[in-house]
Design a protein that fits this description.
disordered N terminus; seven-stranded mixed beta sheet; alpha+beta; FAS1 domain; disordered C terminus
Length: about 400
Amino acid sequence: MPRPLPLLTLAISLVLLASTTTVNAHNITRILAKHPQFSTFNHYLTVTHLAAEINRRQTITVLALDNAAMSSLISKQLSVYTLRNVLSLHVLVDYFGTRKLHQITNGTELTATMFQATGSAPGASGYVNITDLNGGKVAFGAEDNDGKLNAVYVKSLEEIPYNISILQISQPLNSAEAEAPTAAPTLNVTAILSNQGCKAFSDLLIASGAHTTFEENVDGGLTVFCPTDPVINGFMPKYKNLTAPQKVSLLLYHGIPIYQSLQMLKTSNGIMNTLATNGANKYDFTVQNDGEVVTLETKVTTATITGTVKDEEPLVVYKINKVLLPRELFKAAPEKKAPAPKGEKDVADGPNADAPSDESDDQTADNDNGVNKMGGGRLAVVAPSFFFGVVMFFLFD
């Protein structure tokens, strides 16, 4: 006897709900890469570290400027920190698709931007006025621009409803507050390390001269992995046996020349180049995560991130429980032995039991490119099959 139709309807609804609850995070850099005429805007979103901030937000509208419009902004020769403020004024912290632009209540709306969210924008200077003009035109203007709406909507580049909208506007928004000279943040890497339980590591950086490379990379983005003081103290006998250039390489191996938040490390597992990477000397390691635990795997040892010392973009510093040992300087650990068959005598793995096994070239390449083995393609096959099975069960059971 067929089951009641309401139960079938409920089953179908549950399957459809399950298939639509997966949320794909947006990537502003990849989206704009499809539009070469916005390459300059895209480049400076990366240089100013706004791209990462945009990607972390779930509801955002980007007012994009093409290369011609960006040239007028670049000609002002603003510092990278001032340019960040100007571009952050072009990122609205609300969703505005094409349809919503023409449905603004009373024809005008004041909305907050990422510049206002920084806390550096006094008064209403971090807000943008959006006005639906006669004839279908929509104009934009910074609130501190004496009420002038100096830019107009051109076209929509991409819209993912209520997630991200990228709209082209005709020219940069004028704001005296956003363009005010902004001093570079004071981020002294060795001082930060010394005050946060990483003094021994900081002292080695200074003594070797490696600290200059770390300092030079802060503005462009820097991630530091700091072995804690007890770890460094226990490692000193091995460290003293290295030559001066080898010591520098080892210390540089603990830095990545880009900003990588903990969430970014968890979602971008794979091979990472370091400050020590140079031509044939790869000096790389593999980032892996198991839930909330993030590990750094070299061919010699595996270290675990145990805490965050500082996270203030463009600098992030993590504590780790081991010194990272590159294969260029230390003997690679042997691969793990396969489990012995039942009945045979167990053989101990030895002191290198925690060393990671080598990955194949194909697997490494996939990890490096952020390939998700359980991607949307496979899910697209599984979901319809499951859906069909549920329907057939209710119809013919």
